[in-house]
Amino acid sequence: MSPAGSADRAPIKVSVRAMDLFYGAFHALKRISVEIEDRAITAIIGPSGCGKSTFLRALNRMNDLISGVRTTGEACLDGTNIYAPTTDLLSLRKRVGMVFQRPNPFPLSILENVAYGLRIHKMASGQQLREIVERSLRATALWDEVHDRLDSSALDLSPEQQQRLCISRLVAIEPEVLLMDEPCSTLDPIATARVEELMQELKANYCIVIVTHNMQQAARVSDKTGFMLLGELVEFGPTQELFTNPRDKRTEDYVTGRYG
Amino acid sequence: MERHFEKELSNLNQRIIGMGAKADEMIRLAVQALVQRNLGLASAIPDLEHQLNRTQLEIDDAALRLLATQQPMAMDLRFLVTAMKINSELERVGDQAVNIYENTQLLLQQPPLKPLIDLPLMAQIAQHMLRESLDAFTERDPIQAEAVIMEDDRVDALKDQVFREVLTYMMSDPSTISRGITLILISRNLERIGDQAVNIAEDVIYMVAGRDVRHPAKGRETGDGVL
């Protein structure tokens, strides 16, 4: 609706160009090109099996871990192609972190979960480490709930607290991009609302890409939305437009629930 | 398989059309009473207005319920928002018919000022606009809706003409002033009905093409080139 907006375009953080991905003979991503803005939330929606999680994993080369996967095309992070042979995967995944569908805290204490990445990346120790742990737990509003039991097991937290802990764990190592794969699908509506609030907070400092089955969630939280179908990025644009006035008939059918 | 939700949407569409038909009938009755100088011809108007008001509440209720429970998107969302807006336009069309009816009541207490030519013509055009705008709604036809918007100039021109003509009567004979003013008010009522048909047409264009053509001005889209 707004006529303005093009003048102050957000900077592009991730730029995907003509990306194809094959699982063996199966063509899972078909010539995907998209520009993902920094300090914004980009949602990817689409039916099961459309390739949205594959796409998300392609942004930090997690698909490399699956045998038989072949990726062509480029994904540039701040202008540098992450698929270049010289890419250091460890540092890539530190810059581009992932939150998964099921919270997956390590079977360690709350403190050690957040400190883990800092230790292996040798980023901090001693008092400084504790400070970063506190800041990271505050970033996800978990600090007030757990500060008096930092040494108890992370597995004793509620699923939603565990999910926020996983986000704290990521935030601690100061990534630039947060990839979220169905981060709320195992949470109840109140916990979902809290994680969505958290995303809005985090977007001031991060580039966030979220894959979700929940269209209302995409509509609520994201600035840009992409609709994928059968490995193709059918439509990509401002969230409001995609949900009120989609350009492609297939998007229209999907968002109105008439697909299939 | 037609989903339950789609049945509800098409049901809502039907009720809007039914409401439009009632508002249209109210205009017809009011103008007939005016032209034939027989208030009895329009005696059904208060009852029709009552029905229209009740339908307005029912339609808003149904649309609101679907918004809340179905979380509609895209065309469905635009349809529901448009339905609610058209709903209130139609209720106001009914109010204008009531105004014409009441003004007629005043007018009939005195002998005719002049033969009525322009007012029935205005009514005819305004009713045509109303029907076409509702057809455009049902048919999801933005071209038909555009045509309604174009037609409004004729109604406006006729209103100005009524004003000028009645003014000459009132200037030459002050005893005609109260009848003259009532005629001017009726022309104003009819002109408003034309405006309401235009609003409906603009809503239809938004619903179908997703573009807001209201208030064309610098930096916004104009009515030109929809599609």
Task: Write a compact overview of the structure shown.
The complex is a heterodimer of chains A (260) and B (227). With 260 residues, chain A is of the alpha/beta class. Chain A has a domain at 12-103 and 177-255: Rossmann fold (3-Layer(aba) Sandwich), CATH 3.40.50.300.
Walk me through what this model shows.
The complex is a heterodimer of chains A (260) and B (227). Chain A has ten helices and ten strands. Chain A has 260 residues and is α/β, with parallel strands linked by helices. Chain A has a domain at 12-103 and 177-255: Rossmann fold (3-Layer(aba) Sandwich). In chain A, the strands form two sheets. In chain A, strands 6-7-8-3-9-10 form a six-stranded mixed beta sheet, with helices on both faces. In chain A, strands 2-1-4-5 form a four-stranded antiparallel beta sheet, covered by helices on one side. The longest helix of chain A is centred in the middle third of the chain and has 14 residues, at 126-139. Chain A is globular and about 55 Å long. The two termini of chain A are 30 Å apart. Chain B is mainly alpha-helical and 227 residues long. Chain B has one domain (4-209): Phosphate transport system protein phou homolog 2, domain 2 (Methane Monooxygenase Hydroxylase, Chain G, domain 1, Up-down Bundle). Chain B is 79% helix and 0% strand. Chain B contains six helices and no strands. Chain B has helices at residues 4-36, 45-70, 74-107, 118-139, 142-172, 177-209. Chain B is elongated and about 65 Å long. Classes of the chains: A alpha/beta (260), B mainly alpha (227). Chain A binds chain B through residues 1, 3, 215-216, 219, 243-246, 251-252, 255-258, and chain B through 3, 5, 71-78, 210, 212, 219-220.
Distance between the termini of chain A: 30 Å
Structural class of chain A, by secondary structure, is: alpha/beta
Number of DSSP strands of chain A?
10
- The count of helical stretches of chain A stands at 10
CATH superfamily of chain B: Phosphate transport system protein phou homolog 2, domain 2
Show the largest interface.
A-B, 15 and 14 residues
Radius of gyration of chain A: 19 Å
Strand content of chain B: under 5%
Tell me which CATH architecture of the domain at 12-103 and 177-255 in chain A applies here: 3-Layer(aba) Sandwich
Strand share of the residues of chain A? 25-35%
